[in-house]
Amino acid sequence: MRDAVPGTGPTTGECTVWWAGPVDPALRHDLVALLDEHERTRLRAFRRPDDAGRYLAAHALTRIVLGERIATHPAGVRFDRTCRCGAPHGKPRLAPVGDGGPEFSFTHSGDLVGLAVADVPVGLDVEHHRALSDVAGMAEHVSSPAEKARPAPATTGEFLRLWTRKEALLKATGDGLSRPMDSITLSPPGHPPAVLEWTGEGAPVEPFWLVDLAPRLHHPAAVAGAGAVAPRIVEHDGDAVLHARAARA
């Protein structure tokens, strides 16, 4: 009998989110061993240790959590990375695609990685609060015409909140930054986060929910998914999941 991994049990009707810190590949050979050849090649290509640590934590956490959900060893979890253009650089999905498995999204920034899992298409984004040289210009670039008519984000924090919301939505649709952020109009500051309008060719017609998260100081985050009403969002300690894996290795 397998021991249950902390926080990876069934989540039907919920959106579960795990947060963890980077891990040093040189110290966690057990986690590196869970990756497939594509992931190990990407891991070896990183020149900066911080980038490698975030990548390993995000991908190992994803494999452990999804493996528990589908009753498969983490190293045996298979992904389809086919983009809409046919190249293997798209948003990872569980393979075989269309088999009814859970949907997921991972993200990393600063000293934090995150994973969201749900029964509907889901997107998660976190950004590390850091100095930005031109907040007004960046806000102008990502704001819709309706948003430009409002007062512009005055601080880096306000801009990053706007960015994480839109990035989470684009991840949920699978478009990523191939679709411009200025095609999305969000609710104004002081109101609960919501999508008011989505324009442009191929824009989603179905509703998407949107929830702000604050997993750590100076790390604004957002999670979004398909549906008119947000499910219960449950956050877990991803570090505990990674540490538990070391104990079982």
UniProtKB/TrEMBL annotation:
InterPro entries, alphabetized: 4-PPantetheinyl_Trfase_dom, 4-PPantetheinyl_Trfase_dom_sf, P-Pant_transferase_sf
Keywords attached to this entry = Transferase
Q: From the UniProt record, which GO molecular function terms apply?
A: transferase activity
Q: Where is the 4'-phosphopantetheinyl transferase domain?
A: 121-205
Stored Pfam families: ACPS (PF01648)
Q: In which family does this protein belong, per the annotation?
A: Belongs to the P-Pant transferase superfamily. Gsp/Sfp/HetI/AcpT family.
Q: What is this protein called?
A: 4'-phosphopantetheinyl transferase family protein
Q: Which species?
A: Pseudonocardia benzenivorans
